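Hello support,

Our group uses your service weekly, and this is the first time we've seen a run hang past the timeout. The protein is Photolyase/cryptochrome alpha/beta domain-containing protein. I'm not sure whether the cause is the sequence or the server load. Input pasted verbatim:
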Amino acid sequence: MDSVTPWLSFLSLALSHSFPRHFTSFLLVQSAVAVPSFARFLLLRMYALVPPFSGSNTTSASTITPLSLPLKRTVLFSLSMSSIAAFSVSLLLYSGYSDDMLELLLFALEDLRNSLKEQGSNLMIRYGCAENVIKELVKEVKATDVFIEEEVEYEMRQLIGVVKKTLETSSSLDWNLDIVMWRTPFYDVKNLKELPASYNDFKEQKLLPTSPLLPATLPVVETELDWGPLPTFSDLKEFIKEKLGKPEESWNLMKEMPAEVLLKENLSKSSETIPKSLNDKSIEQRRRDKSVFVTRKGDVVGGGTNTLLNALAAYLRYLEGTARDDWQEVHERLRNAETREGASFTSLFGPALCLGIISRRRVHYEAIKYEKERNAGFLSPFGYSAASVAAAADAVCSMEWFWLLALKSQVSNEGLYSIRIWRWRGHLIQYTVVGLEGPAILLVHGFGAFLEHYRDNINAIAEHGNHVWGITLLGFGQSEKPNIVYTELLWAEMLRDFIIEVVGEPVHLVGNSIGGYFVSIVASLWPSLVKSVILMNTAGNVIPEFSSHRFTSERQTSAAARLGAQLLLFYLRLNIRNTLKNFYPTKTNRADDWLINEMLRASYDPGVTVVLESIFSFDLSIPLNYLLEGYEEKVLILQGMKDPLLDSKAKLAMLKEHCTGLAIRELDAGHCPHDEQPQKVNSIVCEWVVAVERKLTANSYS
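Update from on-call engineer: The timeout came from a worker crash unrelated to the input. Re-ran successfully.
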């Protein structure tokens, strides 16, 4: 991550053969040599141990040196009597990676192999089941300690659990094997359970980011090993295709076409061409071009760590101008990616940070170092002197905050539900699931809410024999709030990918408020993912004579939108209690302190004003009567008739007139009937799902 050490290393790719645990695991190892003063080490996540290492059951940040390796997961094994260093990196859900991400990975691996060769090392590649590959490696080198970095994503934590269980129960490992969890933090947080819930309170602690450490130097010796060839793009695609079944493969293809393209195609009834898939020839062309923008689209930075650092230097120095061609290219891409102030950094460098080609703390270190260079060694208390510095530093600090929140949710049981973490396009997303079998139901909250807004629905619906999923959308609750342009199509794509990558089967979609509009888009664009739709006081209009010319994909942020978002945030913080009580006209006590405090907490997260800006750019011009076409007898409207935001009677009248086959239930509630009248809503939802499932079963036999 931060620098490369001269280690003899090998890389092993292993993919689980069991759905849904599709992952790839990489292992790197230094050959054994008799050096009694050292311990042997296998490391999972590209970190080198600064020798000598005590071999105790805990490690501190000061004893671990991050390496410049393009893989983000690792486990370290320690052996006695000789020196060995090894890495095992598990890249979760290769099948979920876009072609661009796969190509970034290949460039990074190629750079890693070349760097290691220059230092007398090499990179080995193996395919197999992760836990078996790691077990055989431990057995081969007779490891006595295994150090595993703590992860936040649910699938990674499951993988780590499987690896630990395999190692602990293996009869072939007939010696004492210690498994130790460790991490190298961006901030030196002593106790995660005491992490403040509010970002404001966290900032008041004035914790300083840790600095990158110098690389360790370990002995290098020649060892005869079968290193294997670096995989090509075609190799990876074929490997994924082979491990996925036909349904999963076809579902993955859905993600290749953006919602905007698909929507325009449907509206115009014309045929849009899907972008061609990458091939090894196009990748090779990028290698020859020596560009830091190595993907097909050419809009993200890739390559090895040194390439990333060069691109970062160019990005930070945007205001200086340059005669260098490579820096001019970075500056041009920066301008194109600046869809809103500061958004270019996440757009250009986000994928590389996600893969671990460069670390968050290295980015922060370089940004602050350059800021000091500009200001005679000082940092101004009034902010950064360059917008590019602010964009980089703010982005990685925000990423770290949400990573800490995610990790805290995994080590403490403070919430209403057991929280899992899913990484979508590099961002951390919270979700939960209750129930082991039955029809899948996905609950989607409204603007400003989070999955716990279904606090009295998830368990109750699951108890009636359903598999219930709740998700906190990007930009809300404790899910990440990156500096991007938020649109209704972005959130629809997120729900699509969640169904494909996490749920893994068609769902009954339930949405409240703007969440209802999002699920309507999903139902319209990807009908094979949806069994039925339940809309509760949904956003969206009914337009009898809809014209496709109303839709526009242009989304521009403005100074007025930024000011409006800041004023709206200020107003909501002051008036949130009264505002919520208006949404609960029949049971104002449901707008309780817990709900208010959770919404206030989220309002102080970094990036919240960016999310609020989306209110001023939402395009709800695609009407519900268009989106719900083809769902006769598969749409249930639950309408709280005392909704203060709209005329419920008029809306229902329009829906009845222009949408055929709707089922409508009127409720004595406000804007959030599921939380105001949970028992009634739960009963209606369960009855609806049973009826739809019965019809689907009957149709399958007819």
